[in-house]
């Protein structure tokens, strides 16, 4: 190995071994890159407004970075929007707080920072929490302790993740941005009444969480009176783990079959 190669290897080793945890430094922009583990989905939303704030007031809080894989490089843990805003202003460098953390903790720190700043949409928050739950095996109680929330709060928020991607997209298109309303939408989807829920929301007849809870309670009461959700005459017989649904005619049986198949596909997907 040449002396130059030995020197480069030594510099890389020093860089990786150097303990910079908690250090605040000014780092050139070209040495910083966004992290692939970023809970925010719309990474550049509101960048122009933020750039104007940076131009007027400067950077009030350093962005948080960790060492990158390349020598002298860094990846963003939190503050990516500030980074993009500064870059749009032509800044050549930016103040950073450097943290030394294992890769598995990088995403967790990004989620914590964004949740504490209340910058994530409810959809981004659900995806981020679900990632932590699945990848790092957190229980609802542990997630609650991590973010200073109750276990029941975490369970409610994560219930949103049980919705199909199609139903979540419909809620997003209807501009349901209130987290608690979205939890109620998830309850409506679970009971098969999301269509009516969204119709009332779109009309402005379902504005508050109280309205949504009242709607879900009413839907629950109605479904308990007619378990299959419609008024066709039928009888239900239970024997152990077997359930028989008896209708008065073949046409009614077909309608009941179609309804059940539709409900099962909502919850478990189309059978292959």
Task: Give a topology summary.
Elements (H helix, E strand, L loop, with lengths): L2 H15 L5 E6 L3 E2 L13 H11 L5 E5 L6 E5 L1 H9 L4 E6 L4 H14 L5 H14 L4 H8 L3 H9 L5 H9 L5 H12 L3 H10 L5 H17 L8 E6 L2 E6 L2 H19 L4
Parallel strand pairs: 2-4, 3-5
Antiparallel strand pairs: 1-5, 3-4, 6-7
Helix pairs in contact: 2-3, 4-5, 6-7, 9-10, 9-11
Strand order of the largest sheet: 1-5-3-4-2
Number of strands: 7
Estimate the mean pLDDT confidence: 77
**Termini Cα gap:** 58 Å
Question: What fraction strand?
Answer: 5-15%
Q: Specify Rg, calculated over alpha carbons.
A: 26 Å
Low-confidence stretches: 1-17
Instruction: Summarize the main sheet.
Output: 5 strands, mixed
Q: Quaternary arrangement of the chains shown?
A: single chain
Q: DSSP helix count?
A: 12
Q: What overall geometry do the principal axes of the alpha carbons give? A: elongated
Structural class: alpha/beta
List the helices and strands in order: HEEHEEHEHHHHHHHHEEH
Helix content: 40-55%
Features:
single chain, five-stranded mixed sheet, disordered N terminus, 272 residues, 54% helix, alpha/beta
Task: Describe this structure as you would to a colleague.
There is one protein chain. This protein is 54% helix and 13% strand. The chain is α/β, with parallel strands linked by helices. A 5-stranded mixed sheet has the order 1-5-3-4-2. A two-stranded antiparallel sheet has the order 6-7. α2 (47-57) crosses α3 and α9 runs parallel beside α11 (209-225). The chain starts with a helix and ends with a helix.
């Amino acid at each position: 190995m040449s002396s130059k190669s030995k020197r480069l290897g030594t510099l890389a080793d020093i860089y990786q071994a150097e303990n910079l945890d908690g250090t605040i430094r000014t780092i050139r922009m070209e040495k910083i890159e966004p992290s692939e583990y970023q809970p925010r989905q719309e990474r550049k939303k509101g960048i122009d407004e933020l750039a104007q704030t940076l131009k007027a007031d400067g950077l009030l809080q350093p962005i948080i970075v960790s060492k990158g894989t390349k020598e002298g490089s860094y990846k963003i843990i939190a503050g990516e929007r500030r980074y993009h805003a500064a870059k749009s202003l032509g800044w050549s460098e930016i103040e950073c707080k450097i943290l030394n953390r294992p890769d598995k903790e990088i995403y967790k720190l990004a989620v914590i920072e964004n949740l504490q700043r209340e910058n994530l949409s409810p959809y981004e928050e659900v995806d981020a929490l679900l990632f932590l739950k699945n990848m790092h095996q957190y229980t609802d109680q542990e997630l609650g302790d991590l973010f200073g929330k109750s276990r029941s709060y975490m369970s409610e928020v994560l219930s949103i993740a049980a919705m199909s991607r199609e139903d979540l997209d419909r809620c997003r298109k209807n501009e349901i941005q209130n987290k608690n309303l979205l939890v109620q939408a998830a309850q409506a989807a679970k009971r098969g009444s999301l269509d009516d829920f969204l119709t009332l929301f779109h009309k402005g007849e379902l504005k508050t969480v109280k309205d949504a809870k009242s709607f879900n309670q009413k839907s629950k009461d109605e479904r308990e009176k007619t378990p299959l959700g419609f008024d066709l005459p039928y009888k239900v017989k239970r024997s152990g783990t077997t359930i028989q649904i008896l209708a008065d005619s073949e046409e009614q049986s077909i309608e009941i079959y179609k309804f059940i198949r539709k409900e099962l596909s909502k919850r478990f997907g189309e059978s292959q």
